UniProtKB/TrEMBL annotation:
Coiled coil: none annotated. Keywords: Signal. SUPFAM superfamilies: Periplasmic binding protein-like II (SSF53850). The keyword Signal applies. Residues 1-32 form the signal peptide. Residues 543-555 have a biased composition (Basic and acidic residues). This is ABC transporter substrate-binding protein. Residues 537-590 are annotated as: Disordered. Gene3D superfamilies: Periplasmic binding protein-like II. It comes from Paracraurococcus ruber. The lineage of its organism: Bacteria, Pseudomonadati, Pseudomonadota, Alphaproteobacteria, Acetobacterales.
Length: 590
């Protein structure tokens, strides 16, 4: 949620503090002094690296020379509070200042505060920060309001002399997330993490448990490929197994309190996992996973009556299963929990599986002494690709991947932008990115993912490395360009989903209300006409039948008719077989 009320990344990692970094005081020194400082940082901190030490020193010398016009200048940047950004603010910021002579302040704020401040700068034109790390979920907002600098133009124009020759954009795994409909890059990835399926590998591989599941359901216990299997496994552990090693166990974990954190639990692609929207990576076209239809570059409707899918059968199925599973298979207290309260529960040892689990939990889930960690330090759990809902079709997005990304605003004076751009690149350069990946476990570069150091560490990370090396990775993406004003639209979700979770409304009624509310925001943006030729233009209302037929005629998927059978045969795959099926070497570059 990005409306100022919830900071999901802070909650993920249990950090309650809002941190404002001190200004790093860097003397106005020479290039030679900067290179000497760089040598110390390369030898003592920036290891391992995909570059040789000689190559790292060449990059560092480039930073020292490129920063000469800005020595002594003070630059302010901001990001939300997660482990990766804490490392940047406390370590990389100091290294950058010592090497470049630029005085740097890297603030760490709650996620909602970051969004509030970037909106303030966009609306007022007053420079608040010189560079921003904000979610690429805002790509549709940045593209349409045209307050963000298109980095594609910047790197060959005003920022050319400050653009790192070895930046290697092709090495970034999430660059499509920050790319607008015009094909230009607006946001450069700084960190990424996905939501995946999490399960107790040790329980799933116990012979007695496997045999009992096979007798009851007629197929093997394993990683669920579809929601039918997930439901069967939830039923099995909750109501058949009931207890393991003297502990009451549950086959599912979630949360249901009507709270802002409930909103992004759904905007972070729960509907796409069910099969809402159309085919297309990184987001469905013409209908995305929020159910908003875009024609050309214009959003034209959210409700099924306007060609959207927010209240179509696939979306209603998604919410219905959420409500059903929460009531039947999760611990009773889960219905009254928020995200921050539910997050630590799987690590306590009583949960068999969870469909919606952020990989940012990985570092906390491998701590010694936890019930889910063996005495030798190896995890008793694994992560794997999420199962697919009954409406899902090949080629659809399958889940959410966060991508906090560097963004420059046009209201920032050019020289301050240039100096801040140097720091942004310093944080993602090949000299520093591998070490940062080991600290925060939020990959951004293909070369880092395939480095030998992560091959060696993979066994202790429960499948994180295997997932990011797999071809499945590209089906996990952030919110896309169909969303013209993320802050205004995102805040509608928790209120309406909360009505379904509490039982105040049926899933259909809740999604009808959400679709109508989103259409209302689109209509207001249309009337204001502040987003130019790519701003919303609502379709006239038609019957659902009209759009079912139109979708079929156009060769699209959304909206889909209601399926006669929303629970096909369950299907699973053996985890170890799945891992072995993925490539053992990095993809060849084009």
């Amino acid at each position: 949620m990005k409306d100022g009320t919830v900071n999901r990344r802070r909650l993920l990692l249990g950090s309650a503090a809002v941190l404002a970094a001190p200004v790093i005081l860097a003397p106005c020194h020479s290039v030679a002094q900067g290179v000497d400082a760089a040598r110390r940082w390369v030898e003592q901190e920036f290891q391992p690296s995909t570059l040789t030490r000689e190559q790292q020193m060449q990059e560092m010398e480039w930073f020292a020379r490129a920063a000469q016009p800005f020595r002594g200048q003070e630059i302010n940047v901001v990001s939300e509070t997660i482990t990766t950004h804490e490392y940047e603010a406390r370590t990389l910021a100091r290294a950058f200042s010592e090497i470049t002579g630029i005085r740097l302040r890297h603030d760490l704020l709650q996620e909602g505060d970051v969004v509030e401040k970037i909106q303030t700068q966009m609306q007022s034109g007053r420079n608040v920060y010189d560079a921003w790390v904000n979610d690429s979920d805002l790509i549709g907002t940045h593209f349409r309001y045209q307050q963000a600098v298109p980095l594609t133009d910047w790197m060959v124009g005003e920022g050319k002399d400050q653009t790192l020759p070895t930046l290697d954009l092709e090495d970034f795994i999430g660059r499509s997330f920050g790319t607008g409909p015009d094909g230009k890059l607006y946001q450069l990835p700084d960190q990424q993490f996905a939501n995946l399926y999490w399960f107790r590998y040790d329980w799933f591989t116990r012979p007695a448990i496997k045999e009992a599941f096979k007798r009851q359901f007629g197929y093997d216990l394993g990683v669920p490929v579809n929601w039918s299997a997930y439901e069967d496994i939830a039923e099995f552990f909750t109501n058949t197994v009931k207890e393991i090693d003297g502990v009451k166990v549950y086959g599912h974990m979630d949360y249901g309190k009507k709270d802002p954190s409930l909103g992004w639990r759904f905007t972070d692609a729960w509907l796409s996992m069910a099969g809402n929207g159309d085919r297309g990576i990184p987001n469905g076209k013409p209908v995305d996973e929020w159910g908003i239809r875009m024609e050309g570059c214009r959003p034209v409707g959210s409700s099924i009556e306007r060609g959207g899918d927010t209240n179509g059968p696939a979306a209603v199925y998604a919410v219905s299963k959420y409500v059903e599973w929460l009531k039947k298979y999760a611990p009773p207290e889960a219905a009254g929990m928020t995200f921050s309260e539910s997050g630590p529960v799987p690590a306590q040892g009583a949960i068999a599986q969870q469909m919606f689990w952020y990989t940012a939990f990985t570092a906390d889930m491998v701590k010694p002494g936890l019930p889910v960690v063996s005495p030798d330090g190896s995890p008793r759990w694994r992560m794997a690709p999420s199962p697919k809902g009954a409406y899902w079709k090949d080629g659809m997005k399958l889940g959410y991947q966060d991508a906090g990304s560097w963004t420059l605003l046009k209201s920032t004076p050019v020289d301050r932008r240039r100096a801040a751009w140097l720091y942004a690149q310093f944080c993602v350069a090949k000299s520093t990115s591998l070490k940062k990946s080991h600290v925060g476990l939020t990959f951004i570069r293909e070369s880092d993912i395939w480095h030998q150091s992560f091959t060696e560490r993979a066994k202790s990370l429960g499948g994180l490395v295997e997932f990011y090396r797999s071809p499945a990775r590209v089906q996990w993406t952030p919110t896309g360009v169909n969303i013209p004003d993320y802050p205004r639209l995102a805040q509608l979700w928790w209120q309406n989903i909360g009505d379904a979770s509490s039982g105040a409304k049926t899933p259909q009624a809740a999604m009808d209300a959400l679709a109508a509310a989103q259409d209302s925001v689109l209509e207001r943006l249309q009337r204001a006409n502040v987003q130019g030729e790519c701003g919303p233009r609502l379709n006239p209302r038609q019957t659902a039948e009209h759009w079912y037929e139109q979708s079929k005629k156009d060769g699209n998927i959304a909206p889909q008719r209601k399926l006669a059978n929303e629970k096909p045969q369950g299907e699973t795959v053996d985890y170890d077989t799945l891992i072995r099926s993925w490539p053992a070497s990095p993809p060849r570059r084009a």
